[in-house]
Amino acid sequence: MKTLQPPKSLLLVALIALTVACGYSSKMTAPVAGSMPAVSALSPNSATAGGAAFTMTVDGTNFGAKAVVNLNGTAQTANTTFVSGNQLMVAVPASAIATPGAISVTVTNPATPGTGMYGSGGTLAATSAAMSFTVN
Fold this sequence. Notes:
The chain is mainly β. The chain has one domain: Immunoglobulins (Immunoglobulin-like, Sandwich). It contains one helix and ten strands, in the order αββββββββββ. The protein is elongated. The model has no long low-confidence stretch (mean pLDDT 86).
């Protein structure tokens, strides 16, 4: 005697329906805002156009351990050194100060990935307001 088997597509639809109905897709939580860094001082705060590369100290608050200094919006990932939550050092290349003008300096705390069973949570990247560095 033969037993009737349900079609495989019907089983797949039932499995998907149960997964969604159990709330699997709703267990993820969106990333939250990260700590907003703030730049309060640059040292030095100016340089001579055409000068040599130098190291700048960036003082402020809420700098994360993986914070990055940005010069005119370009992340200085390899050139940024974390000193503390209130201080970063950045190697400024000579090419950045080749011509006179103002350089916008910001600090970005990068996003952190979510963790846990569903990979939810984490934080969003946060970038400080700009401080101007003068190239004379």
